[in-house]
């Protein structure tokens, strides 16, 4: 690999077409994105980095509304696409650019499957190649233009070394007989669809300290929390950049009645006070007048896919199966979720699975059935309540 890689900025259709032509003959393509989740309400891709050995392109989606020229190469499963922790990158490229990555090799997932204790890109590059990645640009505002030389170089670094890292990890997957597990996980990520998270108005109760509030303070917190959501969505700003959770909690506890007491609430900017101070005071007064608010109803233990809740007997079985899973993970040298993730474990319990066929119907992939099917079915038979 060249000591000084070539880095090109792509913000014109002609340059994008030239990049697309270059990628048609690539043996593999490294992909990464930089996003604005630290600044915006609705995350978007601000940079798309494409890399091949010795060369990187930084594509500017804010200047190019149509990235479809890249689709033939990025959607060709015969050309490996190498990403690191690519779930979110892939989801956003699907949602915003209509590009569906095919031929994925995810270096973070591969490292996790292999049992690496540190799976971040910087840690893996340091461990394998002694490379030290610059970290000071991690929280850059990638929406701003122009970017400085250091930001562009930082963005390029994330794709310039991925092929070498893939080449270091792939043989280890083969040596440990975990290739089918990795390919199954890569295919799962490729097939997943982007999801827009719906705002939960009851999520105010998850703020640290919220459950300890008295019922009137609780109503104040809920109402200013909803106001923050309204402002953040309308102005496309990250919620914490409108008002932080700690400031919301202080508002609820102190219940300010005038602008002077409102100004004493730590963390409220002058701009926020000028634009929204009056509305906040009205909400606080109305909440106090409305009186106590009961806490949100407790939600039952539920799997993330919404398949249903576990009753007491099922929850007891679930906990015992978690113990079995922890022991197998220790033997394999991986995190427990690599054996059986919680979501799948809940499905198994809800389905009343007892046999390998039951496990397959509950969602066990071929590799998981091969590695764990017999032992897990035996454990289920041993632990499950007898009819």
What does this entry look like structurally?
There is one protein chain. The protein is an alpha/beta fold. The chain has three domains: 6-191, Ribonuclease H-like superfamily/Ribonuclease H (Nucleotidyltransferase, domain 5, 2-Layer Sandwich); 201-290, DNA polymerase, domain 1 (Orthogonal Bundle); 312-383, DNA polymerase, domain 1 (Orthogonal Bundle). It has 18 helices and six strands. The chain has helices at 13-23, 71-74, 87-97, 107-114, 121-129, 149-160, 162-175, 179-191, 215-235, 239-242, 245-254, 259-263, 270-290, 312-332, 336-339, 342-351, 356-362, 366-383; strands at 6-10, 29-35, 45-52, 55-59, 81-83, 104-106. It has a six-stranded mixed sheet, sandwiched between helices. Helix 9 crosses helix 11 (245-254). The longest helix is centred in the middle third of the chain and has 21 residues, at 215-235. The radius of gyration is 25 Å and the shape is flat.
Task: Write a concise synopsis of the structure shown.
By secondary structure, the chain is an alpha/beta fold.
